[in-house]
Amino acid sequence: VASLSLVAAGCGGSDTAATGGPGGAEIAPQSAALYMTLNTDLNSGQVDQLEDLLKKFPDREKLLAEIQKGIAEEDLSWEADIKPALGETFDLVLLDFRRSDDVVGIVKPADEAKLKALVTKGDDPAVTRELDGWTLIADSEAVLDRFETARSKGTLQDSDEFTTAMGGLPDEALAKLYVDGGAATTALDEAGDAPSTGKNRLKTVALALGAESSGLKLDGGVTSDVEDDLAAKKPYEAKLLDAAPEGALAFISGNGYGEVDKTLRETPGTYDHFRELLGIDLDGVASLFEGEFALWVGRGALIPEVTFLAEVKDEAAATAALDKLAGLIPPEAGAQRRSTEVDGVQAKQVAVQGFPITY
Q1: What CA–CA distance (Å, rounded) separates 27 from 30?
Q2: Full DSSP string of 154-211
Q3: Residues 302-329: what's their mean pLDDT?
């Protein structure tokens, strides 16, 4: 799908707005664990913007040529086989996280016959079914049967949680994603990978990937039911943003509100699990994330420069935590450890194959 999106961008469009409306959500089951919608409207402004972005990359033509070659190797043609089979959106639904093969594609193709011919090609052809003007695509009839059974109990379009989560995203995007938090948590609980979170419950996750003149933008939101002490937390002001250099390639900020270490200690076996997995005791490392912390990527001579900055109450404890993290570098990596000075401040440095890590 990603390859087709790139080829679509390379084929150009107009400056009309991206398709709005509910898309495949109008027939997707309300109980769907995951829903993703991709903009495949070649006349949309978002596809136009993606095309403009790709023109800034020197290997754009080479990339498109490789994708076109891959399509040709499957005995397919973009103009004759794929383009006519596209609709304005291509939606994907995962019915249940516990059944990874329960995936259904939803599309309104420009040419129904071309779509059916496309999905039945290859060694493992898919099956299709028409439903309320849409075409469903899956690996088997059984998956489509489960889709229709689940749909009979309501659709995503009728879900207040879905409409609220997706309503907070930009109207125009290259792709949007919705995750049912309850379904995700249940799957993790059953797999034994989800720690107890008390009364805190994730409800929804919604993301949108959009193209802008200078790059790609990811918007998102999370809704949850949380205990009073967590709900009372106020949004923080990202003061560490001022420390990041102008022209940073990426910047991430967070705040632990003094709850990180407490939460980990209330989760049985957390530190024991890390100790068993990494072979080192990471007790105390959580102190680096108790207050505001930030991570940014800046330009470097050979490789990008990555910087982590944390606001801590106990500098000695934070340094000890960093010592533990530095201890994760295995002896066989040939790390050279030494002391250094940065703007009059004593620091430690670990050099791995000539690349220094300073703290």
Answers
A1: 9
A2: -BGGG-HHHHHHHHTS-SS-SEEEEEEHHHHHHHHHHHT-----TT-EEEEEEEEEEE
A3: 90
Model pLDDT for residues 276-300, shown as the tens digit of each residue: 777 777 788 888 999 999 999 988 8
Instruction: State whether residue 350 is helix, strand or coil.
Output: strand
- Check residue 306 and report its DSSP letter: E
Alpha helices (runs of H) in the chain, residue ranges in sequence order: 2-10, 45-54, 60-73, 112-119, 141-151, 160-167, 181-191, 228-231, 260-265, 270-278, 315-326
Token look-up 């990555």 returns 306
Q: Which residue, among 23, 26, 37, has the nearest Cα to 157 in the 3D structure?
A: 26
Residues 198, 191: Cα–Cα separation, whole Å: 18
> CA 287, CA 278: separation in Å to the nearest integer?
18
Q: Who has greater pLDDT, 83 or 34?
A: 34
pTM over 0.85? The answer is: no
Q: Which residue has the tokens 């919705």?
A: 178
pLDDT value, residue 11: 45
What is the C-alpha separation between 83 and 110, in angstroms, rounded? 8
Of 138, 206, 132, 217, the closest CA to residue 174 belongs to 217
CA distance 180 to 150: 15
Residue with tokens 């093969």: 101
- Asked if 51 contacts 10 with a C-beta cutoff of 8 angstroms, the reply is yes
235 vs 108, 309, 328, CA distance in Å? 42, 19, 33
Burial of 87 (0-12, 13-18, 19+ CB in 10 A): buried
Q: Dihedral of CA 277/283/289/294: which sign?
A: negative
Instruction: Find out whether 301 and 251 touch, Cβ atoms under 8 Å.
Output: no
- DSSP run (H or E) holding 296: strand 292-298
Gap between the terminal Cα atoms of the chain: 43
